[in-house]
Amino acid sequence: MMRTARLLPFLFCLTLLAGCAGGTLVVPWPPLPTSVILSPTPRPTVEASTDSSTRLTATPLPTPAPVISKSVSYAAALRPAGLAPANTAGMTEYRLDVNVAPDLSEISGQADVLYTNRETTPLDTIYLHLYPNLWDGGMTVTEARVNGAPVDAIYPSGDDVIGLPLAAPLAPGESVDLALRFALPVPSGDGVGNYGEFALQDGVLALAHFYPTVAVYDTDWRLETPAPHGDVIFQDASLYDVTLTAPADLTVVATGATLGKTDNGDGSATWRLGGGPMRDFNVVASRDYLSASTEVGDITVNSYFLPAMRRAGARRWIGVAQALTIYQKEFGAYPYRELDVVETALQRAASNIRG
After folding, report:
1. Which of 73, 55, 78 has the alpha carbon at shortest distance from 260?
2. 85 contact partners, CB below 8 Å, separation of at least 6
3. How far apart are CA 355 and CA 350, in angstroms?
4. All structural domains of the chain
5. SS3 sequence, 285-319?
6. C-alpha R_g of the chain
7. What pairs with residue 338 in β-bridges?
8. What pLDDT score was predicted for residue 86?
9. According to the model, what pLDDT value does residue 129 have?
10. Is the per-residue pLDDT at 36 higher than 60?
11. In this structure, what DSSP letter does residue 133 have?
12. What pLDDT sits at residue 288?
């Protein structure tokens, strides 16, 4: 997911779902699409089986039972034709169960992570970044488990990195199940959340880097604090299966594919989201979004924008479609089914979030 920001006093903000891996398909230079559909409704979903509630229950942490198979969830975001199958063996797998408060001021949830040691040395601790604590703080991990057993987490430097000790070293090729229950407030106001990447601004909820993220191991764990400028994420490509419960009247745009939406009958709805391989997972939502869409070959280009930017937003897909055509001509096939462009309230900067 790639994002550019409005610069003061006000320019258009964009969030683009971009590929983290190139393809092998060489595509011709297609004509620029000329049709556009203007709609206040969310993007369509692909059909999935009915999802029973996977929301958090009391301690101990539950073991989630997938309703949608991994192969369906992870492949849902990828274009089916012309690309070599993605090699996902050993990739980190995230199962995120996330709840958004009715007033959008807080999120809580559980991260279930299947981590495989793809290094050549045994690992005795798995480290994860808590990126929101780099900016406004408040992210807490209230419970952590390794292979179902509770562990005492460690914080090697400040509160932006958490370590989960293992009972025995994890040999190369072996896997371990991690579970973390977390909660954090969503900041609002000028200058919060890394230029507004993680913030509630102008009725737009932006949730970049909101979940515990496994650190990169590169001869050693990369735990250094990133520079507080622009895109802070440094993460291996991973697989995502996400359940998001939030107010039902939101338009939710997320990295990957929307697998389904269920109305809970209490003013909330539950979205099932997923995809991979992706470097990050991001969610942007608003009650006010309008949308316009078009097709570039078999790729859907969606533009989401606020009513005040109706004219620019409805035409934003033109430049995006041109850029997508150039990308495929120069670099190869764009690997995903969708490319989403989303207006947000980033301030004084531009950054990229690739998913």
Report:
1. 73
2. none
3. 16
4. 45-285 (2.60.40.1730)
5. EECCCEEEEEEECCEEEEEEECHHHHHHHHHHHHH
6. 20
7. 300
8. 66
9. 95
10. no
11. G
12. 95
